[in-house]
Predict the structure of DUF2110 family protein.
Amino acid sequence: MLDANRRLATKLYVEGDARERSLDSLRSQVDNDVGDLDVEFELGVRHDD
């Protein structure tokens, strides 16, 4: 098994509930693309703004 870590970044220009909805949408899109593969992914928000 190949063990590789990749980091993709995007900027969310919204706050509060809209940010949570955006993260939910992004999580769903990623799951739709890689959900059938044997991979793990994690989405989160960096707090260094």
Summary: The chain has a mean pLDDT of 83. The chain is about 40% helix and 0% strand. The first helix runs from residue 16 to 34.
